[in-house]
Amino acid sequence: MAQTGDPDGAEPLEGTSGVVADADADAAQAGGEPLSRAKSLTIGAVTKALSQEFPDISISKIRYLEDQKLITPRRTPGGYRLYSQTDVSRLRTILRLQRDEFLPLRVIRQELAAGRTEGEQIASPQPGTDARPGAALRRLTFSLRDKGAMYSLEDVVEETGAERRLVAELEDYGIVAGELRGSTRYYDETQREIIRAVTELSRYGVAGRNLRVFKTSAERESGLLQQILAPSLRSRNPERRKEAVEALENLAAVASHLKHLLLVRDLRRIAK
What we know:
By secondary structure, the protein is mostly helical. It has three domains: 7-113, Multidrug-efflux Transporter Regulator, Chain: A, Domain 2 (Orthogonal Bundle); 144-206, Multidrug-efflux Transporter Regulator, Chain: A, Domain 2; 210-272. It has eleven helices and five strands.
C-alpha cells in the first residue's frame, strides 16, 4: 500500500552493512554537497547501530529528536533521511547525556551548542571548587534560585507540541501553575519542561490523573530535603542561607539520581 507523509517507514534498500543504496547516495549528492556513500546511513541502520548501547532506541525517538532540532540529517529528493557519521556521533552524545546525566533536552541543546562531543565527560572538580555529590549535575540542570525566562501559554504549546487541553488538565491536577498577567498565562522554564515531558508520556496514554504518583513522590522528597536543611534555610545569616540553598540543589541532584537508579532496578525485573 502506498504511503504518504514521512517515507522513512519504508526504507530504501540497504546493503548488509546498513549503508544506503547507491541510488539514494547519488540522490543526496544531487542536493548540492557530496555525501560519502560509506558514511550515509538510513534511520533504520542508525537505530540498529545504536541499539546495543541504547536498547530502547527507536525510529520514532530519533524522529522526535529531529523534531526538537537536536539533529538535522540530510534528506534525499524522495524524502529519506541520510545520517552521516557526524550525525550518528551527535545522536550518541544526546542519548548518553539523557541516560547518564539525566539532562532535559533544553540543557542538552545548550551543551551541544557549547561544543559538547561524544565521549566528553563532565570535568572532575578542580581544587577549591564544589566537589560534593551532585554538584556537577546541579550545575547542568535547573537552579532553585532562578526560575529563568517566562513563557506564554502560546509559546509553551508551540515549543512543546502540547495540546491546550493537556496544559489545562495539568493545571487542574496541580502539576503546573501558570502565572496570570493581564489576560495571558505564563509558565517558567521548569513548568515548560514538565509540560514537554508529560506531552511525551501522553503519547503512551498517560493522562493527568496518572501523574498524581509523580506529584506525591516529589512532594515527599521535597519535604524530606527540607527537614534535613530546615535550620540553615531559616537562618537570618544571608551567607548561611545561600550555602543551604546550594546544599539543597546538591541533595536534589543526588536524590534524583537515586530515584532513577531505583526505577531502573525495578524495571529490569519487569523486563526479564
